[in-house]
Amino acid sequence: MKVTVCFGRTRVVVPCGDGNIKVHTLIQQAVMRYKKAIAKVNQDHEYHREILILCAGGVSLT
């Protein structure tokens, strides 16, 4: 069984085995997965921003 937890527009899927998981544990796992997802998005954004800066000859496009 899986549960989808929404944080605004960001959704994370939390596996909960056969359904015998405490809500507190589910929330902790959802928050952990959300933080990982946000960190990944921020890294991708920073990488693309650096490429734009390099392509623009050092001019910041932020």
Explain this structure:
With 62 residues, the chain is α+β, with helices and mostly antiparallel strands. The protein has a single domain (2-55), classed as Phosphatidylinositol 3-kinase Catalytic Subunit, Chain A, domain 1 (Ubiquitin-like (UB roll), Roll), CATH 3.10.20.90. The protein is 53% helix and 19% strand. The protein has a two-stranded antiparallel sheet with strand order 1-2. The chain is elongated and about 40 Å long. The termini are far apart.
Q: What's the mean pLDDT score?
A: 75
CATH-level-4 superfamily name:
Phosphatidylinositol 3-kinase Catalytic Subunit, Chain A, domain 1
Helix content: 40-55%
Main sheet attributes: strand count, strand direction, barrel closure? 2 strands, antiparallel
The structural domain count equals 1
CATH topology term: Ubiquitin-like (UB roll)
Widest beta sheet: strand line-up:
1-2
Q: SS-based structural class?
A: alpha+beta
Shape: elongated
Count of extended strands: 2
H/E element string? Answer: EEH
Q: What Rg, in angstroms, do the CA atoms define?
A: 17 Å
Question: How big a fraction of the residues is strand?
Answer: 15-25%
Spatial gap, N to C terminus: 42 Å
CATH architecture: Roll
Give start-end ranges of low-pLDDT stretches.
56-62
So what's the CATH class?
Answer: Alpha Beta
Number of helices, counting only DSSP H or I runs of 4 residues or more: 1
